[in-house]
Design a protein that fits this description.
Layout: E1 15-16, E2 20-28, E3 32-39, E4 45-52, H1 53-58, H2 62-74, E5 83-88, E6 92-98, H3 105-109, H4 116-135, E7 138-139, E8 148-150, E9 156-158, E10 165-166, H5 188-191, H6 198-215, H7 225-234, H8 245-254, H9 265-269, H10 272-275, E11 282-286, E12 289-293, H11 295-303, H12 306-311, E13 323-324, H13 327-333, E14 344-345, E15 349-354, H14 358-371, E16 375-379, E17 382-386, E18 398-407, E19 410-419, H15 422-437, H16 445-455
Parallel strand pairs: 13-18
Antiparallel strand pairs: 1-2, 2-3, 3-4, 4-6, 5-6, 7-10, 8-9, 11-12, 14-15, 15-19, 16-17, 17-18, 18-19
Helix pairs in contact: 4-6, 14-15
């Protein structure tokens, strides 16, 4: 069910948990209704999906809902509808999502076929989003124009991950076996009911979508459902005369009935027809918000000369002062805060005390990023390091280091894993981060005394404090 209409919101609508003013009903399904709403604090329009908790529990769908939430949080991308937050009462569950004003792509196609450049743009954005999902072990399994929305800028947004699956659900044969999807867009291997590669099935659906955008009608169609399934299974379709040879060749690869030889996302992105006018979008997530940026800015740290890097190691005039820690901050840190050593680990985060200037710490982090070819991003006293996606990896290793003021001469550096594999993170810390940051760490009883003096009587000493 897509949340997308462009109706004006009603004034003075009912309030939801004191945060959102509910407006017009946009759509509904068996278990949920979707409303247009307004964030009363920011005045931002959102779409709120309201689920009936009793129906969800009776239908045995609670695990399904939890998985959908986890998937939406895993796939933050400019061409995927954003999930802002999830709230609940005793009887309802609320998904607060991005409000996409332009409606469904289906409504645009229903008026007739699209111009080639417009269709190509939508297809490029679709493949970018689908490839991003697949790299993170997420498979949509119900791609169709009704689940593709358009924002006010005419950019595509993939929605409705209700039938999605994750790689953790794969059976022992490495395949999925659940029959799902919309008949006209379902792949032949799903029809065969012998197990399927969900990534390849998504690619088939993308092929059907591309055909529909360019032709204005379905490649496989019959009023008799079983007759349509036979056409899909055999791959029987005919391209209209206005399709260019390059487009026909791409469609043949997308709608290849053999999933083993069907084109992959990397191959699509190297295709001559696809590449025309394509520009990859670089983005990042910070403070739970998604930001787009020029890819050259993010990659700049990888191409800097040693002299340029050296010049940026000097103290920067006007460097912002780190946020100060109070006693309660220190207490919240204390579990796993190894005050006498370099790193105190707490699962997927580490901290250490340093007496080095903030500019020197930031320069050292940039130096580490350059050595391992990580992209670097800075904002005040926060530095993000992002690796590239490795083959077989669901998401690139991403770390965030933040510097806090402890005393006028001491700071706390907190490093957190923001994405990627935990084992890879631990290996990176042991192999690169710890050895290179060691010279900046304070290993002195005076540092411990400083922390104790700041925290006062509220501070609970750790075993390391007395050793």
């Amino acid at each position: 069910m897509a949340a997308s209409a462009a109706e004006p919101i009603r004034p003075a609508g009912p309030m939801l948990l004191g945060k959102y003013e509910l407006g017009k009903l946009l759509g509904h399904g068996t278990f949920a209704k979707v409303y247009h709403a307004r964030n009363v604090k920011t005045n931002e329009s959102v779409a709120i999906k309201v689920l009936d908790k009793e129906k969800i529990v009776k239908g045995g769908l609670m695990a399904h809902i939890k998985r959908e939430i986890a998937i939406l949080r895993r796939v933050r991308h400019p061409n995927i509808v954003k999930l802002f937050e999830v709230m609940a009462t005793k009887s309802k569950i609320f998904f607060v999502m991005e409000y996409v004003r332009g409606g469904e792509l289906f409504n645009k196609v229903a008026k007739g076929r699209l111009k080639e450049d417009i269709a190509r743009k939508y297809f490029q954005q679709l493949i970018s989003a689908v490839g991003f999902c697949h790299a993170r072990g997420v498979y949509h399994r119900d791609l169709k124009p009704e689940n593709l929305l358009l924002d006010e800028n005419g950019d595509l947004k993939v929605s409705d991950f209700g039938l999605s699956a994750v790689s953790e659900q794969l059976q022992q044969d490495g395949l999925f076996h659940t029959f799902c999807g919309t008949p006209a867009y379902v792949s032949p291997e799903i029809l065969g009911r012998k197990g399927y590669d969900a990534a390849k099935s998504d690619i088939w659906s993308c092929g059907v979508i591309l055909f529909v955008l360019m032709a204005g009608y379905l490649p496989f169609h019959d009023q008799n459902l079983m007759a349509m399934y036979r056409k899909i299974y055999k791959g029987e379709f005919r391209c209209p005369r206005w399709f260019s040879p390059d487009l026909v060749n791409l469609l043949k690869r997308l709608l290849d009935t053999d999933p083993k030889t069907r084109v992959t996302v990397p191959e699509i992105m190297e295709n001559k027809w696809f590449k025309r006018g394509f520009k990859s979008v670089k983005f990042y997530v910070e403070d739970d918000k998604l930001y787009e940026e020029d890819i050259d800015d993010v990659e700049s740290v990888r191409s800097e000369s040693d002299s340029e890097l050296q010049s940026r190691r000097q103290p920067v005039p006007g460097m912002p002062r780190p946020a100060s820690l109070n006693a309660f901050d220190i207490i919240s840190f204390s579990r796993g805060f190894d005050l006498s050593g370099l790193f105190g680990d707490s699962g997927e985060g580490s901290r250490f005390i340093s007496g080095a200037p903030v500019s020197k710490i930031i320069s050292k982090l940039e130096e580490i990023a350059k050595v391992v070819s990580f992209a670097v991003r800075k904002k005040d006293c926060r530095v993000s390091l992002e690796g590239s996606t490795r083959e077989g990896s669901k998401t690139p290793l991403t770390l965030q280091a933040e510097i806090f003021e402890l005393t006028p001469s001491l700071v706390v550096v907190e490093v957190k894993k923001k994405g990627g594999d935990k084992v890879e993170y631990e290996e990176f810390c042991n192999r690169e981060l710890r050895p290179r940051l060691e010279t900046l760490a304070v290993d002195d009883p005076a540092a411990v005394a400083a922390v104790v003096s700041v925290a006062g009587d509220c501070y609970e000493p750790l075993p390391s404090d007395t050793e």
